[in-house]
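chain below, 189 aa
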Amino acid sequence: MEEHELTAILEALLFIAGEPMSLDKLAEVLEGTDTGRIREALDRLRQNYDAAGRGLQIVEVAGGYQIATRSECAPWIKALEKIKTATRLSRSGLETLAIVAYKQPVTRGEIEAIRGVDSAGVLKTLLERRIVRIVGRREGLGRPMLYGTTREFLHYFGLKDLAELPALKEFKEVAETLPEHEPASELTN
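prediction:
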C-alpha cells in the first residue's frame, strides 16, 4: 500500500471511529502494516492538518489517535449545539403542536382537555420558538387566547401549506397501531 493510500485510510478510520484508536488497533485493522509506518503516516496527516490551518486536527489522547476540532472553533460549535437542541421538540411539544395544527384556532383549555395535562410550559416553548403564535381571543368568559401555527411550523415540517398535513383519519389509523394512542384518538373527536 502506498503512503498516500495509507494516510487516506487512516484519516477515514479516525473519522469513523469516534474514539481514540491505538496504534495496535489500527495495525489490526490494517493487517500487515507495521505500527512504525502507521505512526509516520499519522504524523504526516497531523502535519497536513496543521499546515492547512483546518478546523480539525489529529490528536494523541487516551493512548490513541483521534480527529478532534480545534479549540479556536469552540464558540461556533457551541452555537451549533444550541441550534440543534433548540430545534428538537419533546413528545409533549409534538403532542401540543399536533393539536394546534389540526384544531386551530384553539385555546389552551381545549389543548389541556385533549392532552389531560397542563400545557402552559409547552405552549410557552412553542411560542418562543415561533412555531405557534397567538392568533386572537375567543369571545366569551375570560376571552382566552387562541393559538395557531406559523410559517416556521410549515418550514420545520417541510410543508407548503396546512393542506399538506396528513388527514386525521390516516393519523388515527397509524396511531391506533401504536401501544399508546389515547391522545391521538381524541384529536379526531
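Residues 102 and 187 are 8 Å apart (CA to CA). Residues 35-52 form the longest helix (18 residues).
thats it, cya
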